[in-house]
């Protein structure tokens, strides 16, 4: 069976250091992450709504919530996040809240019985408290690491952001492998939503392969920040958990991308032309043949057959014209 529709949901945006996205080959460190206040970029935050014939609306990630965005210091008080992150880390216009985005598709949070979370970072679980009734599916390694401390201080899963969840459903990857993956988890047993282990960005980061009619959509969360991060040796994000596992996961995604000729990749924060085009194209819940062809042509123009990046597309930081700290990526 295939999933019937996939809708990207824009849930605000976040301000991140350029090095967090693109400094991984220069060993951009957590100290630079905290101290660099001159090279920010703003990137969108996305969750994904999948319509499944039998399960109804299924969410992949939940984005941020209004308290994280509007009361940042209060939300993170008592945690190092209050100091490590700027007060304007998140922006969430009312019309982009999860409730508003679901309403656009005719749903209330109570209608969502299944939520998959790719990983426990705050910009993916901030609206989880809207879904206390739902089953929350995630990789077992991520679930088991939920209380482990990053920087020796804060648990991987910020307690306030997950306190409402009642039905954790850790998954094991015991179904057959696909592409470069040794195993998978067929979420509903019908082949429509296939979870794949892509650890490294966090201990148990999980990607979701959505099988559509005639094409496939991979939702890697932050296993890679943009489509260009497929070029592992030219474009690499800051390493946040395990650099070896991170690189291994990207290689497996490359293999999957090669094995499924009609696969497109929609990361959570893709601010490139590819991400923008695909999300606009999927506003109706699917991809036309023309848009699929556009995506494949963009990929061919961007990567060689072994995923080296076209040098003309190498990202670089462009400072703001007004001299402010928030620039852009060219
Ligand atoms: Zn993220």
> Which small-molecule ligands are present, each listed once?
zinc ion
**Major beta sheet summary:** 7 strands, mixed
| Gyration radius, rounded | 18 Å
Q: In the CATH classification, which architecture applies?
A: 4-Layer Sandwich
In short:
It contains twelve helices and 17 strands. With 330 residues, it is an alpha+beta fold.
Tell me what you see in this structure.
With 330 residues, the chain is α+β, with helices and mostly antiparallel strands. It has a single domain (5-325), classed as Metallo-beta-lactamase, Chain A, CATH 3.60.15. The chain has 12 helices and 17 strands. It has helices at 18-22, 30-35, 66-70, 72-75, 81-84, 98-104, 122-125, 140-144, 159-162, 243-259, 273-281, 289-302; strands at residues 5-17, 40-52, 56-60, 90-91, 114-116, 135-139, 149-150, 154-155, 167-171, 175-178, 181-186, 193-197, 206-211, 216-219, 263-265, 317-318, 328-329. The strands form 4 sheets. The chain has a 7-stranded mixed sheet with strand order 4-1-2-3-5-6-9. Strands 10-11-12-13-14-15 form a 6-stranded mixed sheet. Helix 11 packs antiparallel against helix 12 (289-302). The N and C termini lie far apart (40 Å). Bound molecules: zinc ion. Zinc ion is lined by residues 121, 123-124, 222, 268-269.
Present the secondary structure layout.
Elements: E1 5-17, H1 18-22, H2 30-35, E2 40-52, E3 56-60, H3 66-70, H4 72-75, H5 81-84, E4 90-91, H6 98-104, E5 114-116, H7 122-125, E6 135-139, H8 140-144, E7 149-150, E8 154-155, H9 159-162, E9 167-171, E10 175-178, E11 181-186, E12 193-197, E13 206-211, E14 216-219, H10 243-259, E15 263-265, H11 273-281, H12 289-302, E16 317-318, E17 328-329
């Amino acid at each position: 069976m295939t999933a019937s529709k996939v809708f990207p949901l824009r849930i605000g945006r976040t301000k991140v250091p350029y090095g967090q996205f693109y400094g991984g080959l220069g060993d951009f460190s957590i100290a630079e992450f905290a101290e660099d206040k001159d090279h920010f970029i703003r990137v969108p935050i996305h969750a994904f709504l999948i319509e499944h014939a039998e399960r109804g609306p299924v969410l992949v990630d939940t984005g941020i919530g209004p308290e994280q965005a509007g009361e940042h210091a209060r939300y993170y008080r008592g945690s190092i996040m209050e100091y490590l992150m700027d007060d304007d880390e998140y922006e969430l216009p009312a019309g982009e809240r999860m409730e508003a985005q679901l309403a656009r598709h005719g749903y209330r949070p109570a209608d969502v019985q299944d939520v998959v979370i790719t990983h426990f970072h705050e910009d993916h679980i901030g609206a989880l408290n809207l879904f206390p009734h739902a089953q929350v599916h995630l990789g077992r390694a991520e679930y088991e690491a939920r209380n482990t401390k990053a920087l020796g201080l804060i648990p991987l899963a910020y307690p306030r952001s997950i306190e409402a969840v009642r039905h954790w459903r850790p998954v094991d990857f015991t179904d057959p492998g696909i592409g470069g993956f040794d195993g998978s988890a067929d979420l509903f047993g019908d082949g429509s939503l296939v979870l794949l282990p892509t650890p490294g960005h966090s201990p148990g980061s999980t990607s979701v392969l959505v099988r559509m009619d005639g094409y496939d959509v991979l939702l890697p969360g932050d296993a890679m920040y943009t489509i260009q991060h497929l070029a592992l040796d030219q474009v690499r994000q800051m390493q946040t958990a395990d650099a070896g596992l991170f690189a291994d996961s990207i290689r497996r995604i490359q293999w999957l991308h090669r094995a499924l000729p009609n696969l497109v990749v929609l990361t959570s924060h893709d601010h490139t032309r590819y991400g923008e085009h695909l999300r606009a194209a999927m506003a109706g819940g699917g991809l036309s043949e023309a848009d699929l062809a556009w995506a494949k042509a963009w990929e061919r123009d961007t990567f060689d057959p072994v995923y080296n990046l076209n040098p003309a597309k190498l990202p670089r930081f462009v400072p703001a014209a007004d001299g402010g700290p928030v620039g852009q990526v060219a």
